[in-house]
Specification:
Length: about 425
């Protein structure tokens, strides 16, 4: 049975602006500079008429937002989800700008989405919708303009369709127009696991800073999709005890720790973590209130809010999802002394390896997996150290510190480029 997650309303774009303002105030940023980098540069809304399998035509709404391209092409995923809204896509593109700047890769922020429920659509319908959406946003994407990637309910196959559609209009193969592609079409080794691996890298850094051992650390993972499952698997490999996980259908718990490799197979076979042998079913709020050392919110936005943040007992909260904490929750956890690794740092592994994929495509190279993972760890640990230094120096939260670092870099590029004409 599907679990209806009741999440208090919190406009994600207002949340993104609130985080921006907090960091800009600490920096003492002038209003004219704020005005240049606060709002998206370009917003495209498209209508997508698709012929469904039953012969009827249904119109979907799609979006592509480019928040800032001062430091390079816009970069950001495309999600297919029934709750996609313009404000959500604007927020996600804003976070992508700061995310790329935090890890210092030469991209700006972009994001896209189609309001649909792919779970109720056939593969043929999804392909037709993907190709129609690609054609609709064609004028503003490209290897030097805007480079999409997978996000919620999109995958490497959908990226292959986007790449093929774009390439057919150009008359030649253009692999660099998207990242997160299948390996056989220019994808990078390590890309599928990159977000979760980056989350793990930052958790390791946080544990070192807090002088906390990962061995036998109790872990709760909210959301067992790509990022959540990979993070759980890597923490399990580090001898942490993953005691609870959840997905859209429910949450499961085992005080002695879940067998993660077997759970991943169970999820692949059944479509859910629910019903895993040796586990008991609990509610989402019960899961968040469990005594643990590390909480990994890896689901959707605003899952940790004023109504449940006070019950969290974790020492580290690692934001594998985008915007999983509302501003109210942020304040509550900060007051409790919880060490929060903010999303624009914590889950930047995905866009970092997307950058590696793009570099390989542009140079017609193929890196070994070990090189990809080594480069990723170096980028993530360097970014964590830079954010931590700002946090300690200015006595601000890790989120504000990460935003300060990102905004500084975007402001520098904006000032150096000037205004044309």
């Amino acid at each position: 049975m599907e679990v209806n997650l009741e999440v208090p309303s919190c406009n994600p774009y207002q949340q993104a602006l609130q985080n921006f303002t907090a960091a800009a105030d600490v920096l003492g940023l002038e209003e004219d500079v704020r005005a240049q980098i606060r709002e998206p540069e370009r917003v495209l809304i498209v209508s997508l008429p698709i012929r469904m399998d039953n012969g009827h035509v249904r119109c979907f709404t799609g979006y592509r937002v480019q928040h800032n391209t001062s430091r390079g092409p816009a970069k950001g995923g495309i999600r297919f989800h029934p709750q996609v809204t313009l404000d959500e896509v604007k927020a996600l593109s804003t976070w992508m700008t700061w995310k790329c700047a935090v890890v210092n890769i030469p991209y700006g922020g972009g994001k896209g989405g189609v309001t649909c429920n792919p779970k109720d659509m056939s593969m043929g319908e999804i392909e037709r919708m993907t190709r129609r959406y690609t054609h609709a946003i064609l004028p503003i994407i490209g290897p030097g303009q805007d480079i999409p990637a997978p996000d919620v309910y999109t995958n490497s196959q959908i990226m292959a369709w986007i790449m093929d559609t774009y390439s057919m209009t150009r008359g030649y193969l253009v692999t660099g127009v998207v990242t997160g592609k299948p390996i056989g079409l220019g994808g990078s080794l390590g890309r599928n696991e990159a977000t979760g691996r980056g989350v793990f890298n930052t958790i390791e850094c946080a544990a070192t800073h807090l002088r906390m051992s990962l061995k036998e650390a109790k872990v709760v993972v909210q959301g067992f999709g790509n990022a959540g499952s990979v993070t759980a698997h890597l923490l399990d490999g580090a001898q942490s005890d993953v005691v609870a996980v959840s997905d859209s259908r429910g949450a499961i718990y085992n005080a002695d720790g879940l067998h993660i490799p077997k759970l991943m197979l169970h999820k692949e076979r059944t479509g859910s973590v629910v019903g895993f042998p040796g586990s008991e079913t609990i509610t989402q709020d019960e899961m968040l209130a469990l005594p643990c050392d590390i909480l990994v919110p890896a689901a959707l936005e605003n899952m940790v809010h004023a109504g449940n943040a006070a019950s969290i007992k974790a020492r580290i909260v690692a934001e594998a999802a985008n915007g999983p904490l509302t501003p109210d929750a942020d304040a509550i956890l900060e007051e409790k002394g919880v060490f929060v690794i903010p999303d624009i740092l914590c889950n930047a592994g995905g866009v970092t390896v997307s950058y590696f994929e793009w570099v390989q495509n542009e140079q017609h190279l193929m890196w070994e997996l070990q090189e990809v993972n080594s480069r990723l760890e170096k980028v993530m640990c360097k970014a964590f150290a830079e954010v931590l230094e700002i946090k300690l120096d200015r006595r601000v939260s890790m989120r504000t510190a990460a935003n300060i670092l990102a905004i500084r870099r975007v402001v520098e590029a904006t000032r150096l480029r000037g205004i044309y004409p």
